[in-house]
UniProtKB/TrEMBL annotation:
Residues 237-258 are annotated as: Disordered. It is found in: Membrane. Residues 247-258 have a biased composition (Gly residues). It holds the Pfam family MFS_1. Residues 43-506 form the Major facilitator superfamily (MFS) profile domain. It comes from Astrephomene gubernaculifera. Belongs to the major facilitator superfamily. Organophosphate:Pi antiporter (OPA) (TC 2.A.1.4) family. This is Major facilitator superfamily (MFS) profile domain-containing protein. InterPro entries: MFS, MFS_dom, MFS_trans_sf, Sugar_P_transporter. The lineage of its organism: Eukaryota, Viridiplantae, Chlorophyta, core chlorophytes, Chlorophyceae. Keywords: Membrane, Sugar transport, Transmembrane, Transmembrane helix, Transport. GO terms for cellular component: membrane. The chain crosses the membrane at residues 9-29, 83-101, 113-135, 141-168, 180-200, 206-228, 312-333, 379-398, 405-427, 447-469, 481-502. It is a multi-pass membrane protein. Gene3D superfamilies: MFS general substrate transporter like domains.
């Protein structure tokens, strides 16, 4: 803490950059498993035979060398895809469960220390997965154990960075800012894919070591330079800061003297009526000392009270299905590309990994446009539903026609990423931040990490289920059944928001709302 050394905009820019790099690192560390799947799986041997013929008629080396085309035990067995899915479940299941507790804990501790510790330990366990290559580990329980702990420490990231960014961001243009900022997800996926694919020729263990080391290095940056709250450097809260330079336009001053916008968006009041506080306890936001210090200490919101905020349950369940789709692609797309001939030719593991980054390229554009449309219309649920429903024909065409042409495969992959990641990015960022600063909370800033954790925690349960089911289903029914699961998930995600969409459209038709202030 101390006086102001730099301007508010300088600090806000540094926070956006540092949290961008932080969560980019988190996602880069999640990507190696999808890249090495095809190497670990290899080509299953016929039981009782020690050698096999490759597709081109050449003789493969024997299975006694675990680093060969025959895969890596135990994942090269007949149920290898199921085992790979179970490793995904170990990571993502723990991540999902940890998310609920991480958000609640994040509301009560110093977020800079919390993030730093989570990043370091996440990097350590990511690297330990790769060390199995150098230590010649073939015990399935080792991979499950390391994945469980890696997932646990990965859960520290999201509630923390959303809470920190919201501390520095006013509500105006939140969807666009968050849409651009949320590109860290896709940029991290792309970086993790490129690095992991490039390292495959050296040995699959290196594909985990580099992202793990990257996490530790980024943790040092976060610890040294991240400013969690404006008051830590003598600045006012974002809305108060904005009101001092803009006058009172668009703001009303409450009893505490702070600037708070009236609920002008459907995303902030889905019931279309005056909202009552979740607790009768008074929450004092500043005692008239406008812009001088962080708001007085308030109690963290109760976990069950957070579920009662209008819109939280619907968006949390919608994100369950949205992340099921997104993480199925995150963990299985390179494997799917490698196993599916394009124009009659199968790609190598590196080529498949490199090609899969186009899904995330489309995802960057989808997240930005979804955020922009949400800002312009104020109808977050409608935007999310539109993107979700449009993803169904894209996914269907990608499965049925993507293999016929390389150019068509690229176009459909990018379109699928565009529509799949759009609502995923919108809900996990702008919607979570809006709901976490809902008027019913009367300015309780400590609720934000809890709300973010609930929404993304539910999403992460879907993220854990999708890759696991993909391994199980593809072993038995092939990828046609996997894509059928994805179609149904997209339709379910859209259906969950129908009630909120109806209220948004009713408000717009009745002239009872206006677009978010630009």
């Amino acid at each position: 803490n101390g006086g102001r050394k730099f301007s508010y905009n300088f600090y806000r820019g540094s926070v956006l950059l540092l949290t961008f790099l932080c969560y980019m690192g988190y996602h880069a560390a999640r990507k190696p498993p999808s890249i090495v799947k095809s190497v670990l799986r290899g080509t299953p041997l016929t039981p009782g035979k020690g050698r096999m013929l490759l597709a081109d008629g050449g003789l493969a080396v024997t299975a006694t060398d675990p680093t060969t085309l025959n895969g890596w035990s135990p994942f090269n067995a007949g149920n290898g895809q199921t085992l790979l899915g179970q490793v995904d479940l170990a990571f993502l299941g723990t991540y999902a469960i940890g998310m609920f507790f991480a958000g609640h804990l994040g509301d009560r501790v110093d977020l800079r220390w919390f993030l730093t510790a989570g990043m370091v330990l996440s990097g350590v366990f990511t690297s330990l997965f790769g060390m199995a290559y150098f230590w010649d580990v073939h015990v399935f329980s080792y991979y499950v154990f390391v994945s469980v702990l890696a997932g646990l420490f990965q859960s520290t990231g999201w509630p923390s960075v959303v809470s920190i960014v919201a501390n520095w961001s006013g509500k105006g243009k939140r969807g666009l800012i968050m849409g651009i900022w949320n590109a860290h997800t896709s940029v991290g996926n792309i970086l993790g894919t490129v690095v992991a694919a490039a390292m495959l020729s050296r040995g699959w263990g290196y594909s985990f070591l580099l992202p793990g080391f990257l996490m530790v290095g980024l943790a040092a940056l976060i610890f040294l330079f991240l400013v969690v709250h404006p008051s830590d450097v003598g600045h006012a809260n974002p809305d108060e800061h904005g009101s001092s330079s803009r006058g009172s336009g668009g703001c009303s001053h409450g009893p505490g003297g702070g600037c708070s916008r009236h609920a002008s968006t459907a995303s902030l009041d889905y019931d279309g009526e005056e909202l009552m506080p979740l607790s009768s306890k008074e929450r004092d936001l500043g005692g008239g000392k406008e812009g001088s210090s962080r708001e007085k200490e308030v109690e963290s919101i109760h976990f069950m009270d957070a579920w009662r905020i209008p819109g939280v349950t619907a968006f949390a369940l919608c994100l369950f299905f949205s992340k099921l789709i997104a993480y199925t692609f995150l963990y299985w797309l390179p494997y799917y590309i490698k196993s599916t001939p394009i124009e009659g030719r199968k790609l190598s593991a590196k080529e498949a990994g490199d090609l899969s980054v186009l899904f995330d390229v489309g995802g960057v554009a989808g997240g930005v446009l979804a955020g922009h449309l949400s800002d312009k219309s104020g109808a977050s649920a409608s935007v999310a539903t539109l993107f979700t429903l449009l993803s169904v024909p894209c996914l269907y065409l990608y499965r049925t026609a993507g293999h016929t042409s390389f150019a068509l495969n690229v176009a459909l992959m990018m379109a699928s990423g565009f529509f799949v990641n759009g609502p995923y990015a919108l809900i996990t960022t702008a919607v979570s931040a809006d709901l976490g600063t809902h008027d019913s909370l009367q300015g309780n800033s400590k609720a934000l990490a809890t709300v973010s954790a609930i929404i993304d925690g539910m999403g992460s349960l879907g993220a854990a289920l999708g890759p696991m089911l993909t391994g199980f289903i593809s072993d038995r029914g092939g990828f046609d059944m996997v894509f059928a699961m994805l179609y149904c998930s997209a339709l379910a995600a859209g259906a969950l928001l129908v009630k909120l969409v109806a209220k948004e459209l009713s408000l717009m038709r009745g002239g009872g709302r206006s677009p978010k202030p630009m």
